[in-house]
Design a protein that fits this description.
The complex is a heterodimer of chains A (115) and B (767).
Chain A (H helix, E strand, L loop, with lengths): L1 H19 L4 H22 L24 H32 L13
Helix pairs in contact in A: 1-2, 2-3
Chain B lengths: L1 H20 L4 H18 L1 H5 L4 E8 L4 E7 L1 H24 L6 H20 L3 H19 L6 H32 L4 H6 L10 H15 L8 H4 L5 H10 L4 H13 L3 H22 L5 H22 L2 H32 L15 H15 L5 H14 L5 H27 L15 H19 L2 H16 L15 H27 L10 H23 L4 H23 L13 H19 L3 H21 L3 H22 L11 H27 L7 H12 L4 H9 L1 H23 L9
Antiparallel strand pairs in B: 1-2
Helix pairs in contact in B: 1-2, 1-5, 2-4, 2-5, 4-5, 4-11, 4-15, 4-19, 4-20, 5-6, 6-7, 7-9, 9-12, 11-14, 11-15, 12-14, 13-14, 13-18, 14-15, 14-18, 15-16, 15-17, 15-19, 15-20, 16-18, 16-19, 17-18, 17-19, 17-21, 18-21, 23-27, 24-25, 25-26, 28-29, 29-30
Chain lengths: 115, 767
Amino acid sequence: MELVLAIAIGALYAAGIYLILRRSIAKLIIGLALLSHGANLLIFTAAGLERGRPPLIPEGQTEAAMPIADPLPQALILTAIVIGFSVLAFALVLFLRAFQTVGGDDLDDMRTTDT
Amino acid sequence: MLLVILVIFAVAPAAPWIHRAAPRLSGWLLAVVPAGATVYLLAQIPEVAAGNAVTAAYPWAPGMGLTLSFYLDGLSLLFGLLITGIGALVVAYTGAYLKDHPRAGWFQAYILLFMGSMLGVVLSGNLLSLFVFWELTSLTSYLLIGFDHERAAARESAWQALLVTAAGGLALLAGLVLMGVVAGTYDLETLLASEDVFREHGLYVPILLLVLIGAFTKSAQWPFHFWLPNAMEAPTPASAYLHSSTMVKAGIYLLARFNPMLGGTDLWFWLLTGFGAATMALGACMALPQNYLKRLLAYTTISALGALTMLIGMGTELALKTAMVFLLVHALYKGALFLVAGSIDHETGEKDITRLGGLRAHLPITFAAAALAALSMAGIPPFFGFMGKELMYEAVTGDVAEGAILGGLALLTNILMVTVAGLLVLRPFLGARQSTPKELHEAPVAMWLGPALLGGLGLFIGLFPGFTAANLIAPAASALLAAPVEVELVLWHGVNLPLLLSVLTLAGGAAIYWLRDGLGRLTAPLAPLTNLGPERGYELTLAGVLGFSAWQTRTLQNGYLRRYMLITVLTTIILAGGTFVTRFAGLDSIVLSEVRFYEGVLAALILLSAVFAVWTSSRLAAVAAIGVVGYAMAIIFLIYGAPDLAMTQFVIETLTVILFVLVFYHLSRFAVYAGRATQFRDAVVAITIGVLMTVFAFVATQIQFHDSIHEFFAERSLPDAHGRNFVNVILVDFRSLDTLAEIAVLAVAGLGAYSLLRLRPKRKKGS
């Protein structure tokens, strides 16, 4: 499974980087979304996979039944998902405003501060 | 000693106010400060002449072994007296010279700042504080040269002087740090006491070269000499003070100071005498054709600095003593002549010696002062300059193997010095009166006092050398030799080689004085050659650096986001990929978990969606593809024991897709801007990074550098944080500050998005 997920991560990175290198901002933002998915999956996979053992203590017991999935990368990814979303939302709104002002989504039209 | 420097630094910022309050008296008032410092230093003479160094240390950063320490021995004292003594005269002189200048107070402030810094250089007992003061002198020199900043020439000269001396300063810093590393201390006293740590060390050559670059740039040695004549753009008091008698001698001070530690080797001898003698002769030759008073003086200053460097490089006891004598001789006559040049310019409005003449009747006192200084410069007995010249001949023709060459160069230089001394005094003061832009009258007291005093001292010391020799020269020479020496100065040595050379010098000088115009016509065709000098190199280097910087800014910072991204990604590929290829040793064993069918389908879905998002030209289809990736990842999280992640991912992904659709709904299909070649290039880059990330991700699953700390959370969560879900406990308890920051990011992004949506800029007409 590790190899399969590694390939998926590679695909997400490749697609994300390719889209970020485009001149169209719309594609750039989609690339950003794919890239953050790739990063999250990378952290998750690199931490080691543990099928069906969530890191929690079942009700009525005092200890978790080892082995469990590593909770630390999960906490990191949780933070990353939320922050990724807020960056994405901001980028989208910024793009919307820029699109309305410039009248297009070509980054080359936005190299000066004048519109 | 700290107090002396601090008082000077403290008075400097007050100078503009003092000047405003008492514009007529400010020169005299401010001169009290350096005069007081002079008295303080004079009071140290008995102690220093007895062979003791006066020291003072104040802890600065004790943890780093840094102390602000001061060290006053014979060498420091001689330099210190020149700085404060000439400084007092210059400050008083400036009061009259810049009487009507609107920023005269600021000029005085810069002069005082420089004085404090320069005093710091020669009194520092620590290599690092010496360097700090050293750089401060470069900065104040920059301010003074560029004082008339309305003129482009002044700005350029100031900039040039700063670049040359600061570049040398960087080399010096490197050299000083190496010295500190080798010796294990930056303390001057300790370094002087433990002599022979450097000469045998492997780093001796780099240390010596770096220190010499610092000293040579500061003291205008060939090929770094060109900034000094240009520095004549400064108002004359600054030229007299910084660029003849003090700052340019900082390099000489450094060489003299380090002579006991670094001197005495063959390399030292060849570099110092070689560059020194070349500078001495070239400076004198370049001085000859100059017609402007200050430039004439500047080139003779270069020549004198070369002579000092040469003498220190020779390293014999006689040469070092001569260096100290000549230092004092030169400071006295050159300071006086510069101030006279300033007076002439001030009173007549004319700087060109060919357009001056017959001033003696109108400026009698200035003429007398100039004559005294020039006689010392020409080396006429019984002036102090005569002793300096005799000693120099004795030193260079003495027990040095290269005596014939050095002697010849010294003879040439001194002959030209006689000529120049004549040019400086005979041309403007004697002969027929020429019309000048201004009405003529004698300079005010403040402006003839300095030159008269300095010129008079040249005669006085020549007549009564005993006190100076025993109390100033001998202690200074002792510091250079690191052993007590006696110095006796006498005018009459009997008929010997130096005396014959002196006679030859005077005769030659007089001859060249009469032949100068003819020589000028002969050498006129050679004038274009001066364009090939080191200054041309400086200009080319500067233009090259500026051109390169403009080019790399245009190339790297060109305003195209994708170019920045491309460079970033390529750098990552090269650095990370390169490191991986060269360092990765392979895996010992590979452990893989099984792939269940539906998991394989999820991974394939992610891969295909990613490719589809790139390929499609429909915006909404691309958004749908992102949604598929997100949901597939959520399910993977669910399978591999991360229900919290899965829930968050479901919610956020849904929100993301809604937001995307809301924004993209209004837009048309994707535009394709790039050509085939660009698409292909980007695809290659993207696939490379994809492959790289695949390899990294896979290797990362197989290597565990540290034990996971999840057992800590498993143990402590319930008893410490009363939580059963470890992820939640980490977020709200163990790493709660991270979560707070995360919420802050969310809030800021939300605020930003909200205000962007509310923002309704006025549309321009027609858009």
